[in-house]
Every structure is written in C-alpha cells, then in structure tokens.
Amino acid sequence: MISKAQAKYVQSLHQKKYRQRHGAFLVEGGKSVLELLSSGVATESVWCTPEFADQNRAKLAAGPPPGLLSEAELAQVSTLATNTTALAVARRPPEAPLSPALALGALVLALDEVRDPGNLGTLIRLADWYGLPGLVLSDTCADPWAPKTVAATMGSFARVSIWPRPLAEWLGALPAGTAVYGADLRGDNVHRAALAPAGQRLRQLVPAAPVAWQSMFSPADTAKRLAKVPLPPLPPLAPAEPALPPLPPARR
C-alpha cells in the first residue's frame, strides 16, 4: 500500500523541476530496479508487485524494504504505460571529477542537441558497453535523469558518469594537443580512423548535426578531424512480381 503523500512524491519526479529540487529520480521496470540495487547508488524506496518480490527476494534485500503494490497501483505512479514489476526512487549520484587529463588514452563522448530522452539513454548504454568513463552533455541535451532516459539506459545510468557542461567552453579549455573528433556525414570512416595517436591523453568524439556545428562552433576550429559511421549497404531489392493479367470485361 502506498500513501497519498508517497504517491504524490513519486509522481512529482515525473517532472524535471522536482527531480532537481529533491535530488532524486525514478527507476522503472524490474531489470532496471535490480541493476540499481546492485550498483551502490543510494535508493530511497522500492515499490513492486508481490509476484516480483517473491521471485527476487534475495536481490531486493540489498535495498530498503519494498512496498507491495498491485499492478494497477503501480501503473498509477509510474510513467510507463505498462509496468507490471517494480519502480524505485533513487538519489542522484554525486558528480565524479572531470579532469582535463581524465585518463591516459580515455575516450569521452561529448553530446550536443540530443533532445530525445530515448536516444540519449541509448547513447549512455552504448558508452557503458564500450567502457567509456562518461559523457559530457551540453545544456541542449535531454535530461539524463528523466524516466524515459533512465529506462533506455537499461541500468547503465549507474555505471557511466554524466558531466553537464557548456560544451563550447569545455572543448576550448582542453589541453593543447588533445584530439577532438567531430561526427559528421562528410567525415572519414570511423572504422578506418586511427583514434589513438601516440602521446595523446584524451580523445573526444562529438556527435552533432551539421546545423549544430555551425550554430555552436566551427569544425575546423574545434574538431581536429571529422569522422562518420557509415551505413551498411542495403540489400538488393527483390525482383518485382509479374503483373496480373487484366480482368476480362464485365458482361452486361
């Protein structure tokens, strides 16, 4: 059972201003909740169905005692159209230090104008998959702690650092000799590019549409090299079906 005050608090976290005010965010779906509990990120509360609690009793013991809700009650406080397992309220983790010399040979993904929460969550998940330490986000990106973003990360939000920064200023303050790669359709094939020249301490890949490049900064001034991910060739089209013979004229 969830009280009216608790339900109101959970529902308030659907909105960015309340996530910022409370320093908390929602984690929805059974898999993401279990990832949260195993990550060490502080968890305020967990709400789940009795069936989910019975199936995951040992893993749920890592967090606060879960409150049991019916699927209908869970749907009332969730942003998901169908959430039949669990949700949790987590504390926003403190920002990890972002040094200009982050790590020898590290690759940091810097994003600009990624406004769709689902796309941003997917990029966070990919950064986790490839072992990147974190992402630098401009203020034109979606909220990384929005429920849709967190859901799209599939648990990677707990393993990848997020650094909100004024992107043009941050790139301009990088040490001399830092390699900056800009994602652009006119760039070189990234699969054939040498992204790790000897002696460079930090490398950046900055995805941005050509319009974003022009509105923020010049690729020639900021990105030392442009790169692109080529699309695979499309399969050949199947031969067209032979045309059907014309119908005989209708009899009168």
Automatic annotation (TrEMBL):
GO terms for biological process: methylation; RNA processing. Residues 107-195 form the tRNA/rRNA methyltransferase SpoU type domain. Gene3D superfamilies: 3.30.1330.30, 3.40.1280.10. InterPro entries: Alpha/beta_knot_MTases (IPR029028), MRM3-like_sub_bind (IPR053888), Ribosomal_eL30-like_sf (IPR029064), rRNA_Methyltransferase (IPR051259), SpoU_MeTrfase (IPR001537), tRNA_m1G_MTases_N (IPR029026). Residues 6-85 form the MRM3-like substrate binding domain. GO terms for molecular function: RNA binding; RNA methyltransferase activity. Signal peptide: none annotated. Pfam families: MRM3-like_sub_bind, SpoU_methylase. Residues 231-252 are annotated as: Disordered. Keywords: Methyltransferase, Transferase. Belongs to the class IV-like SAM-binding methyltransferase superfamily. RNA methyltransferase TrmH family. This is RNA methyltransferase. It comes from Hymenobacter coccineus.
